[in-house]
């Protein structure tokens, strides 16, 4: 499959220039004669065109690889890409015997490497990184120097014995080669470790090493390069000293540049409030500038951009909007993974060039042996030293993985390609050896590291859901430990971290974070937020499953929902979108990208999902869709507010029910209080709107009021909540009077259209509003004769009772949709009703059977909601409605206390002829004033 | 003499470290034999710790001092000081499963006592709220209300972990130590709850 498509693509690619060339020459001829309407200018677009095509090929290849899970599970993607590159390179070479494409150091260092490193820095798990900084630095600095020195010296030693034959290199050349081949490569390490999910400490050590050793590599490379240039005899002690000094300058300078730019970036991001649309751009541009600046000052560019990412992430993420942050995340991932793909593919392509190859078996084999052996020795020695100081010991298994994970990659290749053939005589040999080493480590070690990790049973990361308790305890823990260090008079990790966070809070945040961000930026809060999101989603998923969100308001489901949010709901959930997306979050992996992806997928998908679904179901009608085009802004109106509302609501609901079970709140007492409060409210309101009913002739005002209500303070919301949840009946009652705000779920309708519809339906509904209260009035009497009896009679008597049912449906009809957003929108008239009906609460809460039936109606009514909008549609969907209702009834069954007697009847009700469900509109006109 | 005996008692705290701690103790107590609560005020770095009250409290909590009695000690001597400190010693490589388990429980018990301020063996919602409020007090922008709701949420989570499905009438009174253990399952506290007692010169650091 893969080769075939590759060939096809490539043939197309090859044929294109030829064909285009021909045509362009033809068109050229024509243009001499007259003005050409269409002309081909292949030469004009050639370069960007080919680049774009290569990128396309690489991306398509990625798609193809992932068609087969079997392959990608065994073979790392980087290895596949190299092989693909070799293959494509072979075809290109076979076609025109010219290696026209190769990975040039300029392209690599200026365009391909920065995104990958920035991505690594920006998504670096800082705590983990700084917690292991000591170990990372040791491996990065000492380890790399050790590798470079031993490899270079050993090769030189072997060369002196004459095994390698005649070379034109001296000691310095070998050391130069050693220094460029010594460094573990971040790109290769990331690519391979991404698929091997080792525990996070191990990962961060290997990965951190690969990032930070850049400074060492750059310095060693530059030092030896210049030494080679000035000649062996001119190297003095002072030059060596200069080399050592330059190491500190290069590394610390690079870091400093990174930090300065991070500061700048954070500062800029603080003031982008009004230019949201280019906000993400700053992140990339300023980080890239840090890279270039460091490069310009011949400091370590990788360190600069890494630390730029590491330092700015906290503030930038807090400052920029959620949307921008998502954009940054995706763009960064896209750039990084694209660059990585291209790098590996071009590594393969570059290798197909007979020009660069010189074979020297001894040299190549010995290089492979030496880099592996010395890596192992270096790791073992350094770990032995480290373990005397580390509290979390690095065990032998970890050391094996660390040694084995020392992959070399494109950095080495780019560096070796940079060598000047005039100064370094054996450049070709070095290049070919580097290519062999890179291929060997990426393909062979990359292939075998996974089985190795499994075979050694390396501790992997376990994925756990973020738990609030865990976070809280973790925070308490940090404080305790730093306090103990203070008390015992130690300066340790915790002490330093504590001091830093104090400094951060006192000064940095004030400078670098927006006011609003300072507030919300707390990890515990974030987890809380995340959990809330999850709850909201599980609510929605549950709603999807049942086909209605009505249950959210049904107190009877509280227990169920309360239980455990982490276990997926049984049965039909699988089909729901949110479930699928949540599944994708999957098990955690350790590497950065995956780590990020996980977090992202949890947050993001849930975010967007909660958004989408909730919006779809609940909020649409209220949203005023502005179909405006603006280059500078993306409209996202009320999203945030809506989110907050929903979280608030779900959380509060859970809490209320929890509290009431847990603390045994005295219902009646609180009710009384609320009663009073509501009365007060009523008094206030009544002056404005008599009887709590908005005059039907003014639906527009209605709208305005609603908007205003949205802004209601929280405390009032709270009251609402309490009212709603204390008495299980109250909420139903509350709903009833809210029909003023019944919004038909509007699709992508024009706002104007919606408005007119509102006005018409509002008219109607306002009248109904009072009607629908009616059944509630009757409830006491209804109670004496349980609804189930109605059903049985319904069954028996057929038409007569059927019509009764439909009457009931009709009367209840308009209430239901309000369910969703009523708590957020503090409705005045609802309150008045509340005060009126609070006393009736008690009887309702006792009757749980009714909830069942009511819910059923709600389900039906729910679907009818669309009715005023799309009357025509109704008939077509009718059948669906029925079956949906039946499903709902069935699904309900599993959650409720067993009531075997009722269900069959309910189901029968659900399967009544379609006509029965159509609300006879005539009935709705009936009016009873409150 | 006494020092070396203590060294044996408190496990991995070596005599060298004990000497260091002893110096520190004398520094804190101003060469008295016992430390009182006020002595902790002299540590400047502790000032910014949001839960410093709880931590200092823990030093005087008799439950942590392995005394049979309950309640608060007025003052603690060096031995007690060392006992508290030994809660924070790192695990040793040669510990077997059983020792590890006991070790873990000891550490968790210390934490638990810190939360359970009224000594009734349960972390009630109110107690939890207090802790969370203190924890978040470092952030001036955070309202008390949200701290409370976080505590509530955490409590609910605890309830769902420990009790599982709750009936509507069931009341979850608070987190018992058993529940506390359950909540910490899978988190390797042993490797986290430790302070490395290095021999850092503390004199300069104190003022």
Automatic annotation (TrEMBL), chain A:
GO terms for biological process: regulation of intracellular pH; sodium ion import across plasma membrane. Residues 55-455 form the Cation/H+ exchanger transmembrane domain. Residues 1-21 form the signal peptide. The chain crosses the membrane at residues 49-67, 79-95, 107-124, 136-159, 171-193, 200-224, 244-268, 328-349, 361-384, 396-417, 429-449. Residues 670-700, 890-930 are annotated as: Disordered. It comes from the Eukaryota. It is found in: Apical cell membrane; Early endosome membrane; Recycling endosome membrane. InterPro entries: Cation/H_exchanger_CPA1, Cation/H_exchanger_TM, Na/H_exchanger_3/5, NaH_exchanger. Residues 670-685, 890-906 have a biased composition (Basic residues). Gene3D superfamilies: 6.10.140.1330. Plasma membrane Na(+)/H(+) antiporter. Exchanges intracellular H(+) ions for extracellular Na(+) in 1:1 stoichiometry, playing a key role in salt and fluid absorption and pH homeostasis. Major apical Na(+)/H(+) exchanger in kidney and intestine playing an important role in renal and intestine Na(+) absorption and blood pressure regulation. This is Sodium/hydrogen exchanger.
TrEMBL record, chain B:
Its main location: other. It is a lipid-anchor. Belongs to the calcineurin regulatory subunit family. CHP subfamily. GO terms for molecular function: calcium ion binding; protein kinase inhibitor activity. GO terms for cellular component: cytoplasm; lamellipodium; nucleus; ruffle membrane. Keywords: Calcium, Cell membrane, Cell projection, Cytoplasm, Differentiation, Lipoprotein, Membrane, Metal-binding, Myristate, Nucleus, Protein kinase inhibitor. It holds the Pfam family EF-hand_1. Residues 103-138 form the EF-hand domain. It is found in: Cell projection, Lamellipodium; Cell projection, Ruffle membrane; Cytoplasm; Membrane. The lineage of its organism: Eukaryota, Metazoa, Chordata, Craniata, Vertebrata. This is Calcineurin B homologous protein 3. InterPro entries: CHP3, EF-hand-dom_pair, EF_Hand_1_Ca_BS, EF_hand_dom. GO terms for biological process: cell differentiation.
């Amino acid at each position: 499959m893969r080769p075939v498509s590759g060939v096809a693509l490539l043939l197309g690619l090859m044929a294109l220039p030829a064909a285009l060339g021909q045509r362009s020459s033809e068109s050229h001829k024509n243009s001499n004669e007259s003005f050409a309407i269409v002309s081909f200018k292949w030469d004009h677009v050639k370069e960007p065109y080919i680049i774009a095509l290569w990128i396309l090929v690489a991306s398509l290849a990625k798609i193809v690889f992932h068609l087969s899970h079997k392959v990608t599970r065994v073979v790392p993607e980087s290895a596949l890409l190299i092989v693909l590159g070799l293959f494509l390179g072979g075809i290109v070479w076979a076609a025109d015997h010219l290696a026209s494409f190769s990975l040039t150091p300029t392209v690599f260092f200026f365009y391909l490497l920065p995104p990958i490193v920035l991505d690594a820095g920006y998504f670096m798990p800082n705590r983990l990184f700084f917690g292991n900084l000591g170990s990372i630095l040791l491996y990065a600095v000492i380890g790399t120097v050790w590798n470079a020195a031993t490899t270079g010296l050993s090769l030189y030693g072997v060369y002196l014995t004459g095994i390698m034959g005649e070379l034109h290199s001296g000691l310095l050349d070998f050391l130069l080669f050693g220094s460029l081949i010594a460094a573990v490569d971040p790109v290769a390490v990331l690519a391979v470790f991404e698929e091997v999910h080792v525990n996070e400490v191990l990962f961060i050590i290997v990965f951190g090493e690969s990032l930070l050793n850049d400074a060492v590599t750059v310095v060693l490379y530059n030092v030896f390069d210049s030494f080679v240039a000035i000649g062996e005899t001119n190297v003095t002690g002072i030059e060596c000293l200069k080399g050592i000094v330059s190491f500190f300058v290069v590394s610390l300078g690079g870091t400093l540049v990174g930090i300065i730019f991070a500061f700048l970036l954070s500062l800029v991001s603080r003031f982008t409030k009004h230019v949201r649309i280019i906000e993400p751009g700053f992140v990339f541009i300023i980080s890239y500038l840090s890279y270039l600046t460091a490069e310009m000052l011949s400091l370590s560019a990788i360190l600069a951009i890494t630390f730029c990412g590491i330092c700015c992430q906290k503030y930038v993420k807090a400052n920029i909007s959620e949307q921008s942050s998502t954009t940054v995340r995706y763009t960064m991932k896209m750039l990084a993974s694209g660059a990585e793909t291209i790098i590996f593919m071009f590594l393969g392509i570059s290798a197909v060039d007979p020009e660069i190859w010189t074979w020297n078996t001894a040299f190549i084999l010995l290089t492979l042996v030496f880099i592996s052996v010395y890596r192992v020795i270096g790791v073992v020695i350094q770990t032995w030293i480290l373990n005397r100081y580390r509290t979390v010991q690095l065990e032998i298994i970890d050391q094996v993985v660390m040694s084995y994970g020392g992959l070399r990659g494109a950095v080495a290749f780019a560096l070796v390609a940079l060598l000047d053939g005039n100064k370094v005589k054996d450049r070709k040999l070095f290049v070919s050896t580097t290519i062999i080493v890179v291929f060997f480590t990426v393909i062979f070690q990359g292939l075998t590291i996974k089985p190795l990790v499994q075979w050694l049973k390396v501790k992997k990361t376990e994925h756990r859901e973020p738990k609030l308790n865990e976070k809280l305890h973790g925070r308490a823990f940090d404080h305790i430990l730093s306090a103990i260090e203070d008390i015992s008079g130690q300066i340790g990790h915790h002490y330093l971290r504590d001091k830093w966070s104090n400094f951060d809070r006192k000064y940095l945040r004030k400078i670098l974070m927006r006011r609003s961000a300072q507030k919300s930026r707390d990890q515990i809060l974030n987890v809380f937020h995340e959990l809330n999101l999850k709850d909201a989603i599980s609510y929605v998923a549950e709603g999807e499953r049942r086909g209605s969100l009505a249950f959210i308001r049904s107190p009877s489901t509280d227990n169920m929902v309360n239980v455990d949010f982490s276990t997926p709901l049984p049965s039909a959930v699988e089909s729901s979108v949110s479930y699928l997306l949540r599944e994708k979050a999957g098990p955690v992996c350790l590497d950065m990208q995956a780590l990020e992806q996980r977090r992202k997928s949890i947050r993001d998908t849930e975010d967007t999902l909660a958004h989408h679904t909730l919006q779809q179901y609940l909020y649409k009608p209220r949203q005023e869709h502005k179909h405006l085009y603006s280059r500078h802004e993306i409209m996202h109106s009320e999203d945030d507010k809506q989110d907050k509302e929903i979280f608030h609501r779900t959380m509060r609901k859970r809490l209320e029910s929890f509290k009431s079970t847990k603390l045994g709140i005295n219902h009646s007492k609180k009710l009384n209080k609320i009663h009073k409060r509501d009365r007060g409210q009523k008094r206030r309101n009544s002056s404005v709107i008599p009887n709590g009913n908005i005059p039907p002739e003014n639906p527009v005002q209605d709208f305005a009021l609603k908007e205003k209500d949205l802004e209601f303070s929280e405390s009032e919301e709270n009251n609402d909540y309490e009212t709603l949840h204390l008495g299980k009946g109250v909420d139903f009652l509350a709903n009833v009077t809210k029909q003023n705000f019944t919004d038909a779920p509007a699709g992508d309708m024009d706002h104007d259209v919606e408005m007119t519809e509102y006005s018409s339906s509002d008219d109607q509904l306002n009248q109904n509003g009072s009607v629908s209260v009616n059944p509630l009035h009757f409830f006491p009497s209804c109670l004496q004769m349980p609804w189930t009896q109605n059903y049985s009679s319904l069954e028996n008597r057929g038409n007569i009772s059927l019509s009764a049912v439909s009457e009931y449906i009709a009367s209840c009809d308009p209430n239901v949709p309000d369910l969703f957003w009523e708590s957020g929108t503090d409705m005045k008239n609802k309150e008045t009703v509340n005060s009126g009906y609070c006393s009736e609460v008690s009887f309702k809460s006792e009757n749980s059977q009714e909830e069942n039936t009511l819910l059923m109606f709600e389900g039906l009514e729910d679907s009818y909601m669309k009715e005023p909008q799309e009357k025509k549609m109704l008939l077509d969907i009718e059948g669906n409605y029925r079956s949906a209702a039946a499903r709902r009834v069935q699904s309900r069954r599993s959650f409720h206390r067993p009531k075997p007697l009722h269900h069959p009847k309910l189901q029968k009700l659900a399967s009544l002829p379609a006509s029965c469900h159509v609300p006879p509109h005539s009935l709705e006109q009936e009016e009873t004033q409150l | 003499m006494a020092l070396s005996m203590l060294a044996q008692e408190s496990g991995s705290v070596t005599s060298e470290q004990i000497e260091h701690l002893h110096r520190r103790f004398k520094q804190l107590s101003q060469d008295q034999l016992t430390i009182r609560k006020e002595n902790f005020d002299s540590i400047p770095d502790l000032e910014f710790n949001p839960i410093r009250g709880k931590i200092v409290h823990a030093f005087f909590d008799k439950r942590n001092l392995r005394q049979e009695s309950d309640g608060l000690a007025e003052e603690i001597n060096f031995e007690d000081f060392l006992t508290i400190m030994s809660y924070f010693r790192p695990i040793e490589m040669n510990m077997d499963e059983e020792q590890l388990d006991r070790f873990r429980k000891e550490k968790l018990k210390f934490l638990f006592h810190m939360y359970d301020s009224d000594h009734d063996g349960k972390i009630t919602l109110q107690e939890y709220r207090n802790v969370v409020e203190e924890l978040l007090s470092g952030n001036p922008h955070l309202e008390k209300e949200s701290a409370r709701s976080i505590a509530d949420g955490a409590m609910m989570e605890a309830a769902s972990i420990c009790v599982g499905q709750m009936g509507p009438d069931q009341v979850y009174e608070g987190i018992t130590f058993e529940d506390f253990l359950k909540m910490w399952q899978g988190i390797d506290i042993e490797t986290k709850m430790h302070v490395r007692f290095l021999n850092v010169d503390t004199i300069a650091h104190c003022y």
